[in-house]
UniProtKB/TrEMBL annotation:
<feature type="domain" description="Cytochrome c">
    <location>
        <begin position="209"/>
        <end position="365"/>
    </location>
</feature>
<dbReference type="GO" id="GO:0030313">
    <property type="term" value="C:cell envelope"/>
</dbReference>
<feature type="domain" description="Cytochrome c">
    <location>
        <begin position="57"/>
        <end position="189"/>
    </location>
</feature>
<keyword id="KW-0349">Heme</keyword>
<dbReference type="GO" id="GO:0004130">
    <property type="term" value="F:cytochrome-c peroxidase activity"/>
</dbReference>
<dbReference type="GO" id="GO:0046872">
    <property type="term" value="F:metal ion binding"/>
</dbReference>
<keyword id="KW-0408">Iron</keyword>
<dbReference type="InterPro" id="IPR004852">
    <property type="entry name" value="Di-haem_cyt_c_peroxidsae"/>
</dbReference>
<dbReference type="GO" id="GO:0009055">
    <property type="term" value="F:electron transfer activity"/>
</dbReference>
<keyword id="KW-0479">Metal-binding</keyword>
<feature type="region of interest" description="Disordered">
    <location>
        <begin position="376"/>
        <end position="437"/>
    </location>
</feature>
<dbReference type="GO" id="GO:0020037">
    <property type="term" value="F:heme binding"/>
</dbReference>
<feature type="signal peptide">
    <location>
        <begin position="1"/>
        <end position="22"/>
    </location>
</feature>
<keyword id="KW-0575">Peroxidase</keyword>
<dbReference type="Pfam" id="PF03150">
    <property type="entry name" value="CCP_MauG"/>
</dbReference>
<dbReference type="InterPro" id="IPR009056">
    <property type="entry name" value="Cyt_c-like_dom"/>
</dbReference>
<keyword id="KW-0560">Oxidoreductase</keyword>
Length: 437
């Protein structure tokens, strides 16, 4: 595949670090660290605020704090409790649990590639990784510490941390530096070495015929790329925007809830919004908690699709167990509600097409998680016939009306999967594409 000049940096060296361990970090002002093929070096530099560049010492301290249960009120919960490195920095649960086995009302998103998020959390209530690191420590249902001062006093009383903060930051422990260290560790958790990355950068054999067909459907009839486009400048497969796709409509009267929310929510009060999001019925209002704008009712951030095979259950509330459930939800156009995103419509996907799309989505998992990815695929495939979200009549237009279908391209004429990452009109290699169904 031919690469335009000036973009060679995108194809950087693949990470050699083990799962969950920090890679060698750059000093301030130096080039970005070695990055996997699916991560742009230019984007990494743009995503790291000046002065926040990870240093080896800061990253090491951050990893230690990320794993530290003494940051919680009862010494039982760490950041890692809900973001387990070996599970793709998630916890595998529908809803996460904090101190005293208290459940929150949101599913834990992955930390992998969080450095590229325009905002943090499902509702975007934090602008930076530093802000994001502070809130779970103080949330009553997560780590339960009463205030930043109590956190600082507790950490200062641990001799090893008192010494390390002096060494890394040149001063005593404070809450901002604690969050900065955790954020530095999180900024080094890249992921972009999936079979898809090998395929899109020239290895035509990296994907199976079913996965290639799934990629073509992803960019065509299934319309996934409307919000989950994946390319050199969008390595997360996310538009970083907020959408109401009807997931929360299963259980809430949005209009009544929004009216109550207007009276309760204090715009800009990050701590209150954090507690409402994780502890109350207002959680289902999503982005509305942050903006108090009607068009944000029930809207949640488009999640990354990288490593999606290992980061289920899915959606903000973990209500969809498998990727077949996810495809069924979209295939019928979501769940109708007054605030449903205008882009939601039936897809008309057949069962073989859904199977191909799910196969493709599992090809987005980083190679370092291959074993877990295969295990999760087997578990999800075993549930393939248990499909609570499936409504074939709606999806195929036999009931209701949710718009016209996207085109189903003739893959024998031109397969979108052969375009390559830069839209090169020359196919990567002769395709062994399966026939369209």
């Amino acid at each position: 595949m031919r690469l335009p000049s000036g973009v060679v940096t995108v194809l950087a060296v693949v990470l050699n670090t083990g799962v969950g361990h920090a890679a060698p970090a750059p000093s301030q002002g130096s080039p970005p660290p070695p990055l996997p093929p699916g991560v742009s070096a230019t984007l990494w530099k743009l995503s790291v605020p000046p002065g926040s560049e990870p240093t080896p010492e800061k990253v090491a301290l951050g990893e230690k704090l990320f794993r530290e249960k003494r940051l919680s009120a009862d010494n039982t919960v760490a950041c890692m409790t809900c973001h387990e490195p070996e599970l793709g920095f998630t916890d595998g649960k529908a809803l996460s649990e904090g101190i005293g086995n208290q459940k929150v009302t949101r599913n834990s998103p992955t930390v992998l590639n969080a450095v590229f998020n325009a905002t943090q959390f499902w509702d975007g209530r934090s602008a930076t990784l530093e802000d994001q690191a502070k809130l779970p420590i103080l949330n009553p249902r997560e780590m339960g510490m009463p205030n930043p001062e109590a956190v600082v006093a507790k950490v200062r009383a641990i001799p090893e941390y008192a010494a390390e903060f002096k060494k890394v930051f040149g001063r005593d422990v404070n809450y901002d530096d604690l969050a900065a260290a955790i954020a530095a560790f999180e900024r080094m958790q890249f992921s972009g070495n999936a079979r898809f990355d090998k395929f899109i950068t020239g290895d035509a054999k990296a994907l199976s015929a079913s996965e290639k067909n799934g990629w073509a459907l992803f960019n065509g009839k299934a319309r996934c790329n409307s919000c989950h486009a994946g390319n050199a400048v969008s390595p997360l497969f996310s538009d970083q925007k907020f959408h109401n796709i009807g997931v929360a409509a299963h259980k809430q009267d949005f209009i009544a809830l929004a009216r109550k929310g207007v009276q309760v929510v204090r715009t800009g009060d990050e701590k209150q919004i954090d507690e409402l999001a994780l502890q109350t019925e207002f959680s289902e209002l999503g982005r509305f908690l942050v903006t108090k704008q009607e068009n944000d009712v029930g809207s949640f951030k488009t999640p990354t699709l990288r490593n999606v095979g290992i980061t289920g259950p899915y959606m903000h509330d973990g209500s969809l167990t498998t990727l077949w459930d996810v495809m069924d939800h979209y295939n019928k156009g979501g769940v109708p509600n007054p605030f449903l995103d205008g882009g939601m419509q039936r897809l008309g996907l057949t069962e073989p097409e859904i199977d191909d799309l799910v196969s493709f989505l599992f090809a987005l998992t980083d190679s370092k998680y291959d074993k877990l990815n295969k295990e999760q695929l087997a578990k999800q495939r075993a549930r393939r016939n248990n499909r609570p979200e499936r409504d074939t009549e709606v999806a195929l237009g036999k009931k209701g009306h949710l718009g016209d279908l996207a085109p189903n391209p003739d893959l024998h004429v031109k397969n979108p999967a052969d375009l390559g990452i830069y839209g090169d009109v020359t196919p990567v290699a002769p395709s062994t594409q399966s026939k369209p169904r």
